[in-house]
């Protein structure tokens, strides 16, 4: 164990079958999960097992490149590209220089001609099947994310097409973050985190991991002492969690739960897909989630403005 908070209690989160013939029942189980912890699993999610394997293989090929090659693709002003270890601190109050992980961001993928594509890609000579694999995974995760959001809409007694109809998917801000956590760490990093405590910023996150433990959630961040619970891996399932924008839409009925990744002394790979709405979309409390006695807790805000504000405090 390389420090970082130790093991937490084991959690039993619901497993939602996306191929269920009873979407109302699936939506009901999502509602319960979103109210209780903001985390659940999905199975029969439509992302092929072979594609996930290829994604992880390509991810490790990238992170194994020499540091100067990775740094040549350093995160640009459009928030795409490579971030080295220690350059990002998800919990700004952490006493460490930065989180242990290194990561690579791929944003919405532009047209075939790539004129609209602000992404950075490793060269095809170096990693021949990288771009194709990432593009396939991005598209597949986006399709799955939209299906989950239609169930989330049903779970809020809205039409299944609610998010589509308000324009959330016109130019969705869909970012894939490949993550690599080191195995052994130096003594000076004793107690540091792979990813320090944070909530996700947008609508939902779809998380795939290589099965290595480390992810923990804290359902009540203001409780003293905090209770951190392990989110264990289920083969074939993706982990889904609610982000801040859905918490704002639902006036905190659905929870954007704080989570972190502790160092477990073993190398770890994961891929987080953040499905966030069109940046111009105004996010405001749903009518069904407020009343005179329970007024909206947040002012309406443009999705893009909220995400920018949160990102600006995360990076040095
Ligand atoms: O790697 C993980 O398991 C979690 C990553 C995460 O929370 C994030 O990237 O926002
Ligand atoms: Fe996260």
Automatic annotation (TrEMBL):
Coiled coil: none annotated. The keyword Oxidoreductase applies. One of its GO terms (molecular function) is dioxygenase activity. Keywords: Iron, Metal-binding, Oxidoreductase. Residues 172-277 form the Fe2OG dioxygenase domain. InterPro entries: DIOX_N, IPNS-like_FE2OG_OXY, IPNS-like_sf, Oxoglu/Fe-dep_dioxygenase_dom. The keyword Chaperone does not apply. PANTHER family: 2-OXOGLUTARATE (2OG) AND FE(II)-DEPENDENT OXYGENASE SUPERFAMILY PROTEIN, OXIDOREDUCTASE, 2OG-FE II OXYGENASE FAMILY PROTEIN. Belongs to the iron/ascorbate-dependent oxidoreductase family. This is Fe2OG dioxygenase domain-containing protein. It comes from Oryza sativa subsp. indica.
């Amino acid at each position: 164990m390389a420090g970082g908070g130790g093991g937490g209690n084991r959690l039993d989160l619901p497993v939602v079958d996306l191929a269920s013939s009873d979407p109302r029942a699936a939506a009901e189980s999502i509602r319960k999960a979103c109210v209780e912890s903001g985390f659940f699993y999905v199975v029969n999610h439509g992302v092929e097992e072979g594609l996930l394997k290829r994604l992880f293989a390509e991810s490790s090929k990238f992170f194994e490149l020499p540091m100067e090659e990775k740094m040549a693709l350093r995160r640009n002003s459009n928030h795409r590209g490579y971030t080295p270890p220690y350059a990002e601190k998800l919990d700004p109050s952490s006493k460490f220089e930065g989180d242990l992980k290194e990561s690579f961001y791929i944003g919405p993928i532009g047209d075939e001609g790539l004129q609209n594509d602000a992404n950075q890609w490793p060269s095809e000579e170096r990693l021949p099947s990288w771009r194709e694999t990432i593009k396939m995974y991005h598209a597949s995760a986006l399709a799955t994310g939209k299906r989950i959001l239609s169930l989330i809409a049903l779970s809020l007694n809205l039409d299944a097409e609610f998010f589509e109809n308000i324009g959330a998917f016109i130019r969705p801000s869909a970012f894939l973050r490949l993550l690599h956590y080191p195995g052994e760490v130096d003594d000076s990093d004793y107690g540091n985190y792979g990813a320090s405590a944070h909530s996700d910023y947008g609508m939902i996150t779809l998380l795939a991991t290589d099965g290595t433990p480390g992810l923990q959630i804290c359902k009540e961040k203001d409780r003293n002492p905090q209770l951190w619970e392990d989110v264990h891996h289920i083969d074939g399932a993706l982990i889904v969690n609610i982000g801040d924008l859905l918490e704002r839409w639902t006036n905190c009925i659905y929870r954007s739960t704080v989570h972190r990744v502790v160092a477990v002394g073993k190398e770890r790979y994961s891929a987080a897909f953040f499905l966030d709405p069109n940046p111009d979309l105004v996010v405001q409390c749903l009518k069904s989630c407020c009343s005179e006695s329970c007024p909206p807790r947040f002012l309406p805000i443009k999705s893009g403005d909220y995400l920018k504000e949160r990102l600006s405090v995360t990076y040095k």
